[in-house]
Amino acid sequence: MLSLQNSSRVVMAAVFLAAALLPVAASAATGLPELTLFGIPAEFILFACTLLGVALFHHHTLPVALSGLTAIVVYKLVFTGFHAGTGLAGLAGHMAGEWVILTNLLGLLLGFALLARHFEDSGVPLVLPRYLPAGWLGGFVLLVAIFVLSSFLDNIAAALIGGTIALTVFQRRVHIGYLAAIVAASNAGGSGSVVGDTTTTMMWISGIAPLDVFHAYVAAIVALIVFGIPAALQQHRFSPIVCDVPAGSRIDWPRIGIVAWILIAAVTTNIVMNFAFKDLANSFPVLGLAVWVAILIAVPLRKPEWSLLPEAIKGSLFLLTLVVCASMMPVERLPEASWYSAFTLGFVSAVFDNIPLTALAIEQGGFDWGMLAYAVGFGGSMIWFGSSAGVALSNIYPEAKSVGAWLRQGWHVTLAYIIGFAALLLTLGWQPHVATLAP
Fold it and tell me: What is the pTM of this model?
């Protein structure tokens, strides 16, 4: 049963969203066909209220997201209709066009949660400190290791592994600036890999080629150097590294093989389906199914941690709810895709979840996907609640839950975002793809 405090938060979230709906009800009474505020369509206003509710009531993200989705659906049913038509038939048509992407994303999110635990249980995180150099360089190398791990693990898993190692090697005294760097390294490492971050995975299953995202690493590597060295020096002054490895630690190679097997199955399936069976890939969630077939085949070798699934399902449903909200936005009325809008989205993602921002960009089309992946992926590192990795790490380090301390002591993350973006723009330029707006 919810406590009184938690219940009040849920009620406040519901009241917040209800207040956003009052102008909509008023417009219905006056017979107006559509509500806008300063020229902004009501769908965007409701979506912004939903994201703000998620930020304010982060212990009740799923109820807030579902409330926002309900508000948007009701508004579109009554007033504007959907891309596929009006009324319930339009809603059904819209979901018929989205279900494959949503199912694939659900399969990948749940599958990668089990994959991340396989990696954690492989023993690599315990053995890794053995290879860290002494002095401030050890802190920097740990950030590089987190960056690399995030390229094939979920950024949340990479941040948690890095944070756990930091607890040991820094004797439980970790500087907030270094915590910000751990989150930044996990987000930067996943920005150029379609299996390294939920946002890039969304791009991938939407038909964007992995190579169209890969050049995000130009910006990400520059950013890693810019924030990594100051953060490592901060941490060294605060608490020097001590690289002790627990006795008896060893690597479970079969689990490493399972991680590689699942990743190979996902990548191979996606390549084959997009090149040879495009129609099937668009009509059936083959990618998500392939990941789960690979997981089940490996069960006799090492059993997955099935107990993770209930919490993973809850988190995945929250993300999918935001994706559905974003898919209903009138993206044809957004500002034109440009390097400036991508750069701005990086700062927006520090406050609002990058999943719906990415979904909006995919619906709109016309972006340089590598530049966008870096912006929305790394940009969330600038504030502790700006990314899922930051929220997860702050559960281990409650002292990180201070926006002021994060910005003040993690100043190098914001600087790194700007310099990394500039490096990508000046070297490779803006490389937009043809916009694919929904009709």
Answer: 0.70
